[in-house]
Amino acid sequence: MYVKPKKNLGQHFLTDLNIAKRIADSITYTSTDGNKPVCLEIGPGTGVLTQFLINRSDIDLSVIEIDRESVEYLCANFPTLYNENRIIGGDFLKVNLNELLPKSFPIICGNFPYNISSQIFFKILDHKNQVREVVCMLQREVAERIANGPGTKEYGILSVFLQAYYDIEYLFGVDRSKFNPPPKVQSAVIRLKRNGRQNLPCDEALFRRIVKESFGMRRKMLRNSLSQHLNGSAAQERFLTLRPEQLSVEDFVELTNSIS
Description:
CATH superfamily of the largest domain: Vaccinia Virus protein VP39
CATH architecture of the largest domain: 3-Layer(aba) Sandwich
Number of strands: 9
Number of domains: 2
Largest sheet: 7 strands, mixed
Shape: elongated
Distance between the termini: 58 Å
CATH class of the largest domain: Alpha Beta
Helix content: 25-40%
Order of helices and strands: EHEHEHHEHEHEHHEEEHHHH
Strand content: 15-25%
Number of helices: 12
Oligomer: single chain
Radius of gyration: 20 Å
C-alpha cells in the first residue's frame, strides 16, 4: 500500500532511516516507578520513525495520526500497535489526551507538521506536568527560535513560554533532501526536558499577557510596548529601555510581579 504525502496536511515523509533511528535514540527519559513510560508519536505517517520507537524495549509506544490513509497503512504494517489499540486516528490538536491515554504520557516524539508545530507546543504546555520530555523534528527556524536564549533575533514568545518549563537542546540539523517530497525549508531535531519548576512564582495569566504584548511590539522598548501596565516603580526602572528579546524568563517573572 502506497501512502501519498498530502500537501494540505503538511506531510513530508522522512526517507533516511539513519536519521529516524537517531531521533528514536535521542529519547532519554526513564521512569522512576519501575513502569515503562508511554511515548506518544505525533504524525507517524508511514512509520519510518515508528519502526525504531517500537523496538525500544524501555517505552510503551502509542501513535496518533490524522490521515486516514496513513492510519490504514499503520494498522496493516504494525500489528502489535493495532492489536493493542495503540494506533489513534485523530487530530492531536483536538483530541482529549487524558481520555485517550493513561494518566501519565511523559514522552512525546515525532516529525511535527511544520504548519502546526507552534500549536502542538502550546498544547504540550497545557500538559506540562505530564509531558516530561519531547524529542521532535520541525522547521529549523522554529527549532532555533525555541532553543535560543535571550539576546538572539530568534528569541520570542514561544521561546519564553517553553523555556519557563523545559530545558531545551538543539540536537542536529536535517537536510531537506531527506524527505519525500522535499520541503522548501531545512529541518532540525530538538529535545525538551522538563525542569524542576512546577509553577512560575508570579501570576501566570498576567505573565503570558506581558510576554505576548512585549513581543507584539518587539522593536520598541518596554516603556512603550507596556506603557499601560507600568507604574514608574523602582522595580521596573531597569526594564524601561530594554526590548523584549533582552529579557530572560526570570526577568519576565520579575517584571510581571512588579506590575501585579
